[in-house]
Amino acid sequence: MPAPIRILLVEDNEIFRSALELLLGLQEALQVVGSVGDGMGAAPASRALTPDVIVMDYRLPGMDGVEATAAVREACPTAAVVCLTASASTNELAALEAAGAVACLRKDQALEEIVGAIKRAAAERTAA
After folding, report:
1. Contact at 8 Å (CB) between 24 and 11?
2. 95-104 per-position pLDDT tens digit
3. What pLDDT does 90 receive?
4. Which of 27, 37, 40, 127 is the most exposed place for a label (fewest CB within 10 A)?
């Protein structure tokens, strides 16, 4: 059995973060190794935890998802970033992609779609 995909969650909504941590933790191929509640903590946590995938909210206190994505890509260049947001404009999505996010999904998408994006991001990261 391959090692689980190591995930860092960056989400300011504590209830959503806890629920996502629980739901992703129930997936056999995934392991949530940490979570932070703001953009400022994302880079230090990614450096310390070396996750395979970082699930990043867009609207965060301290620094937004674009800034936090750029910071974690610098701190942990081997990690893939999947953005998970309630809403983002076309310009915001383009900025996330330019910062290094490999996918951007809405928070109301089905868990299977979110898990699929995480698995694809990890597979692309490994293949790169």
Report:
1. no
2. 989 999 999 9
3. 87
4. 127
103 half-sphere exposure, CB direction, 13 A CA radius: 23
β-strand pairing of 53-56 with 30-36 = unpaired
Residues 62, 83: Cα–Cα separation, whole Å = 17
Q: What is the layout of strands, in order, in the sheet containing 80-85? A: 30-36, 5-10, 53-56, 80-85, 101-106
Integer Cα distance of 118 and 6 in angstroms = 10
Task: Encode pLDDT of 53-79 as tens digits.
Answer: 999 998 899 898 999 999 999 999 999
* Cα 52 from Cα 123, distance rounded (Å): 10
Asked if residues 49 and 88 have their Cβ atoms less than 8 Å apart, the reply is no
CA 120 to chain centroid, in Å, comes to 13
Instruction: Kindly give the interhelix angle for 14-25 and 111-127, rounded to the nearest 10 degrees.
Output: 70
